[in-house]
Amino acid sequence: xxxxxxxxxSIRVRHGLRQVELAKLVGYxxxxxxxxxVGLKGPPTDEFVERLTAAIPLTKExxxxxxxxxxxxxxxxVIEPDAPADIYRLLSDLRGEIEHLTPAQVxxxxxxxxxxxxxxxxxxxxxxxxxxxxxxxxx
Length: 139
Fold this sequence. Notes:
The chain is mostly helical. Helix content is 55%, strand content 0%.
């Protein structure tokens, strides 16, 4: 389950709502609520989250946590075109191993990522290949 799936299910159960009741409150089909809760659908649109927060009395902290869970639940990652080749390699390795990571390995990776504020190593800017003029190109 995604972070949003967990949050949605938890909110619905805490408020004593069945999926069909929640669906009526937010103006969506029950099947969509179900698909969100089991993680078959990706993160919802901002409109869905706004309807949900308007329909159910949530504290400001709960609303922020729900929005954060939606953000954390994105399944796709876009790499900036000028990212270093090592970033591409790292993500390729991660893609190949993601299904086999243990909870301990996931924790370790997240701990390493949390170090970014404490590291003082500067990242080398990406080198761009310079286009040669027709005079420079060998013929």
